[in-house]
Amino acid sequence: MPELPDLKSRADVARMVRSFYETAMADPMLKGIFERHLDLDEHMPIMTDFWETVLFRAGKYRRNALQVHFDIHVVDPLEWPHFERWLEIWKANVDSLYAGEHAERAKLQATRIGASIHRRLHGRNPSQFETVGTREETT
Fold first, then answer.
1. What is the pLDDT of residues 53-76, one digit of tens each?
2. Taking a C-beta distance cutoff of 8 angstroms, is the pair 35, 44 a contact?
3. Closest by alpha carbon to 4, among 15, 27, 21?
4. Residue 63 and residue 100: Cα distance in Å, rounded?
């Protein structure tokens, strides 16, 4: 089996994003949410901008991803199992298409972003270190 390439360009990112959404939109857990809130043709360039910015620091994404999820959450509460499933599909999709530094970053950043958005939707600190507190001074 030939070695998979790494993500290198906007075209690679677009392929990864489209493949992910095609799979996610057929998933029993996620399908309804996506169908109610997403026009795939309109969404593709936005998400390609997002992931191109995340992976290559392209600076093309200038929207508020958190607000979009807050708006969805009001209508369709997004719980941790939704995020887990999203990440499971995302990681499997990346692994089926690409391998290398940028592919690994796509999976890591998706994990971080998904967990942060989930925490924010549920009124918690977005940091993965939310349980780390400060120590009282001792004299």
1. 999 999 999 888 888 888 999 999
2. no
3. 15
4. 28
- Where are the domains positioned within the chain? 10-121
What does the alpha-carbon distance between residue 5 and residue 38 come to, in Å, rounded to a whole number?
29
The two tokens of residue 133 are: 């507190």
Res 127 pLDDT > 70: no
| Predicted local distance difference test score (pLDDT) of residue 137 | 55
Q: What is the CATH number of domain 10-121?
A: 1.10.490.10
Q: How far is CA 32 from CA 20, 28, 29, 82, in A?
A: 16, 8, 7, 11
DSSP letter, residue 131: T
Model confidence, pTM: 0.85
Q: Rounded to whole angstroms, what are the CA distances from 79 to 7, 73, 74, 89, 102?
A: 30, 9, 12, 16, 28
The two three-digit tokens of residue 44, written as one number:
């593709």
132 pLDDT band, cuts 50/70/90, is very low
Cα(28)–Cα(33) distance, integer angstroms: 10
